[in-house]
Design goal:
Length: 211
């Protein structure tokens, strides 16, 4: 006779392991393997995102096209940053009754999302980290559009590192291209008179190529 204490065979049921030493906030229904798999997944996601950001930051930028050789950056340099500027070119009338040199006041937004302030010097300063570059015109540039300020090539004369970064400290040359507006009014002016001319431009920042 069959042992009546024996139960008929049926589907197997998994029994959860004892739930001990669980961290606060961890679902007690999660097995150790499940928790491990989730942790590994999160780690891989973080690594993938970090590598993607590094690739974007280090990606080589193409040089601008259609640039007159007069304002081309010398061989041995490469573009590392591009910023679009919106601001004003500010003029003051001198004692001779003509407009003096323009002083820029603009903000640049770069291809990587950085903010750069452009002001007298001419100077470009990364915000909020503070790295900066001062540059001087190599020549008078070219003027493809008679209604806008010239396209220029400027050579770095001084660079400084910032408190939290050195974005601009390796700059060797800067190109000002694709300008709109920014010109002083035509004709005579009254000594001391001021005028702010709205302008936009693209600035290409160059550095020496790595050996």
């Amino acid at each position: 006779m069959a042992n009546t204490s024996e139960r008929a065979a049926g589907p197997c049921r998994c029994v959860n392991a004892p739930r001990t030493h669980l961290l606060p906030g961890v679902d007690p229904r999660m097995t150790r393997i499940t928790r491990l798999c989730r942790a590994v997944g999160v780690g891989l996601a973080v690594i993938t995102a970090t590598l993607a950001m590094t690739h974007v930051a280090n990606a080589e930028l193409p040089p601008p096209t259609g640039v007159d050789p007069l304002i081309a950056a010398p061989a041995g340099n490469e573009v590392f940053l591009v910023g679009h500027a919106t601001g004003t070119q500010n003029y003051t009338c001198n004692n001779a009754g003509s407009w003096g040199s323009a002083v820029p006041e603009a903000d640049l937004l770069t291809n990587n999302g950085q903010h750069i302030h452009h002001f007298a010097g001419p100077t470009w300063q990364e915000l909020p980290n503070g790295s900066s570059v001062v540059a001087a015109k190599v020549n008078d540039g070219v003027k493809p559009d008679p209604t806008a300020i010239p396209w220029l090539l400027l050579k770095a004369t001084k660079t400084t590192g910032g408190r939290g970064g050195h974005l601009l400290s390796d700059t060797t040359y800067i190109q000002r291209l694709h300008t709109t507006g920014g010109l002083a009014p035509a004709g005579a002016c009254t000594a001391g008179q001021k005028f702010a001319a709205q302008y936009t431009a693209d600035y290409y920042f160059w550095k020496a190529k790595s050996a």
